[in-house]
UniProtKB/TrEMBL annotation, chains A, B:
Protein keywords: DNA-binding, Transcription, Transcription regulation
Keyword Transcription: yes
Native organism: Streptomyces bingchenggensis (strain BCW-1)
Record lineage: Bacteria, Bacillati, Actinomycetota, Actinomycetes, Kitasatosporales
Top-level taxonomic group: Bacteria
Name listed for the protein in its UniProt record: Putative LacI family transcriptional regulator
DNA sequence: GAGAGCACTGGGAGCGCTCCCATTGGGAGC
DNA sequence: GCTCCCAATGGGAGCGCTCCCAGTGCTCTC
């Protein structure tokens, strides 16, 4: 009769009262802190169970000055960039590592102006304990925002130009070099490159690796044929390549989507893969296996990328000073080369 | 000299002091609330700029009892389920809709026991303003947790068996029916079904749609050949089908991944698609276009699914009572049927 | 000219938790 | 028997914000 109100959540004070202890003791008991007698600890546990008490994370956050969350920010002017399964894998890895540290994952797609504004607020307002930043492009406004962040920031992949203090990256140059060397080792001499957006560091680095390998083999590198990491752009780039260099016998595509696109164009043009033209991709996503023929590609440890970013962030949050990390790649040989 | 301390974030009180107004006025000015004179409003704005003040979201959350975040929970015993590009699209849609309501997105992959435990805490603790739940399986513990949630919950796809109060789903039955009818209309009479996990509602509903269409056409539905929505499982299912029903001339696959797998098996078995066997998939993800031949499939509006879930949640949070939603599908005819 | 009404203002009580600190009451050590 | 130490305890001051409420000086009406 007295207690038929809209049933608010029980608070610590109610637990306190039911258990007959002070708030300090109840708090300590909840956090498994020392200096609580066995009897009181049990009394608190009983009260908690009876009331169905769950601590209010917001209040805790305010008192401890820790939000218990880390943000993953994915840049890009178009939200569809995020549809790339690449990010899903990063998330799987990051999520697992964050879970170990008992942090929640906030996901921010900084595509629209509004989205970027919200990210800026987040970075400046202690809305999370730390941030992971991915897919920055050249002159990305997020880079500047990151500098005035009031919390630790870890980069996934280096932004174009500068190397931030903390980042995790994949060995793009090495992977691209290995892919190209492989093509060369198979006797290909006219190897073209379908590269990703050159306003991304991954796009540049992979072209650089290709170029290095070509020069080292005393072959002429092709000028970059730019795509935007999507399947159609790969198909288009391949078509352009076929027009300008009809005699090419190998293609290094800067990711699997574009590699799959190239395969499609090649098929439609009646070129046999790998007999006439050998193709190597980059990423080793599901599409590489589904492609026809299955794509030889550079495997990059994407989930590990996410996991290591998260671990680095956790280290930073707990006051340590981790060192940047570059993850190795590995060539996966299938049938396209 | 006095102010060389580790530079905490400025607080509202400091703004207050600099602007020479009371905290109430400053708060009102910040929130664009009425009853603030132009002069004071400007004074506050100036002080905010000068101090680089950004409101602390946690404190605000505690005072307003609103966290400013919504969670998207993806169930599944294996985190890799999330690697399906399906979810990425849902997220794109949900994120956009949430952004409009100025809510942040928390992502919870409830794969491990630990993950589920954290979700349970989240649901019971007011750690978010609302939750979207996806990919529940039969007897999923999350269903029970959702019931004792202290915040609104909307389901993405109905859980097996029961229909929750609020959900957004895709017309799985209708889509599968249309796909099957299409196959029949093309003269196929021995149409098999590679269905998804039958402990998911989508898996069941799509098989039901197939079955309905077959019966309506006075054809014998095949017993369900179960896969798990992955490419390899589709390939395996197709192989089994070929052994048991070598004379089949059509296949309805409950998603594109499995459809692509079926295509691969068919190709390896020397069956021509669509000449010998016509194949229709479901989802219309990127893989459908990349497959060889490009897959005729049932398009489902995935981003819209995410968007509508988020909108429904926002409506719920703001005290409205929206009605469940079922999104239409659409057959996309390519070359596999 | 008195009262009503209204825009503006600031004081202060929370929101639900953590954590510093002072206090208490036994043992252990001599 | 008397310190000294330390586990156990509870009081209470925040954490940074929102929002209710009472108060102030106007203009407007009859």
């Amino acid at each position: 009769m007295a207690e038929d109100a809209p049933r608010r959540q029980p608070t610590l004070d109610e637990v306190t009262e039911l258990a007959g202890v002070s708030r300090s003791v109840a708090s300590r008991a909840l956090n498994n802190a020392p200096h609580v007698s066995r009897a009181k600890r049990e009394a608190v546990e009983r009260a908690v169970r009876q009331l169905g008490y769950v601590p209010n994370p917001t209040a805790r956050a305010l008192a401890t000055r820790q939000t218990g969350a880390a943000a993953l920010v994915v840049s890009g002017e178009d939200p569809s960039i995020f549809a790339d399964p690449f990010f899903a894998q990063v998330i799987v890895g990051a999520s697992a590592a964050l879970e170990e540290a008992d942090l929640h994952l906030m996901l921010c797609l900084a595509a629209s102006d509004r989205g970027r504004k919200r990210v800026e607020e987040l970075l400046r307002s202690k809305g999370a304990d730390g941030v992971m930043l991915m897919a920055l492009r050249e002159n990305d406004p997020l880079a500047r925002m990151a500098e005035e962040a009031v919390m630790p920031v870890v980069f996934g992949g280096r932004p174009v130009g500068s190397a931030p203090r903390w980042y995790v990256d994949v060995d793009n140059v090495g992977g691209a070099r290995e892919a190209t060397e492989f093509l060369v080792s198979r006797g290909r001499t006219r190897v073209a490159a379908i590269c990703g957006r050159l306003d991304t560091e991954a796009g540049r680095a992979r072209y650089r690796g290709y170029r290095d390998a070509m020069l080292a083999a005393r072959l002429d590198p092709f000028p970059p044929q730019e795509g935007d990491f999507t399947e159609p752009s790969g198909a288009a780039a391949m078509a352009a390549l076929l027009v300008n260099h009809p005699d090419l016998d190998g293609v290094f595509a800067a990711n699997d989507n574009m590699g799959a696109g190239a395969l499609r164009t090649l098929r439609e043009a009646g070129r046999l893969v790998p007999a006439d033209v050998a193709v190597v991709g980059f990423d080793d996503l599901a599409v590489a296996q589904i492609a026809d023929p299955p794509l030889t590609t550079v495997h990059q440890p994407i989930a590990a990328l996410g996991r290591e970013m998260a671990r680095m962030l956790v280290a930073l949050i707990s006051g340590q000073d981790p060192t940047p990390l570059i993850l190795p790649t590995r060539l996966v040989i299938r049938f396209s080369a």
